[in-house]
């Protein structure tokens, strides 16, 4: 029996996608083998790859002057790829916003190759908010400006897009495809797949084509967006099964009404949980209103000695993976596209019952 899964990543996948993959696993398209067992250069797989790209372009209305790349190495490889690909045109300074653990990892990596100017940080209030633009100290000569629109661990999401005078780079690993996006405001958008796209093992990068010419000459071949773009993301063997499954998720998203429908649902789902947290004396959200993520909802029990009982009983009730990140403790419910409203209703009902029984 499938249960409600609130895992932060690798996260829940849509059940119809898993069923289709299961049904096609042994004999895909009448070929007598699975999609994993054919050449990535076969016409059959190339069609899968091209359709996935086109569906993603349709979903996010990606303009023609952007390349869509399917890459190895997760979002972490992109922490390195960003400076390698953008520090080559004589500028080795970049602006970063520090909003928590993922932003910090991106910053640490960029510091190995150039100078990082932290334009704003929310460290002063323990990373519980997204800093507003009034506090920024932008550099005049930055090669790019990097931020993390949704901090998956802290549960902090920007409700605005920074206006900057150099290419804007965003790590959208945990909120891509959750709402319509003005892609033209960005230079680069990247995301590891395992939160809101598909299984782990693949990442997507959407790169404005003029930015393909700015790489450091020594860039490792496997990190080069230009090499990937020129080779249709097949300079070497891509993660074919993850690409195929991501493509099925894109088709599912289109059938659900696309990112507009996901935006509406994500607001409904997260509001249901936040409203309950704000009414409760027993549970609370550590994140400041205005910066609360629609995707990842951390919460704490007033009495943390009940954490273990809460998690155990939740699991018994069929509510999986609510434990907070090991670095922050408490709880976290991730409400990505594949998590239905019914899951959040069941969670809130369970929490209300738990609260009543323990007070
Ligand atoms: C999960 C996550 C990452 C790391 O992704 P990997 O694919 O494991 O490298 C980076 N940034 C954000 C915002 C994430 O949520």
What does this structure look like?
It is a single chain. The protein is α/β, with parallel strands linked by helices and 359 residues long. The chain folds into two domains: 16-256, Aspartate Aminotransferase, domain 2 (3-Layer(aba) Sandwich), CATH 3.40.640; 258-357, Alpha-Beta Complex (Aspartate Aminotransferase, domain 1), CATH 3.90.1150. The protein contains nine helices and 14 strands. The protein has helices at residues 15-24, 43-60, 74-86, 101-110, 225-230, 240-256, 258-279, 307-316, 341-358, and strands spanning 4-5, 66-71, 93-98, 115-121, 144-147, 150-151, 156-157, 168-171, 188-192, 203-208, 283-284, 296-301, 319-320, 331-334. The chain has a seven-stranded mixed sheet, with helices on both faces. The longest helix is centred in the last third of the chain and has 22 residues, at 258-279. The chain starts with a strand and ends with a helix. Bound molecules: pyridoxal-5'-phosphate. Pyridoxal-5'-phosphate binds at residues 9, 74-76, 102, 148, 152, 171, 173-174, 192, 195.
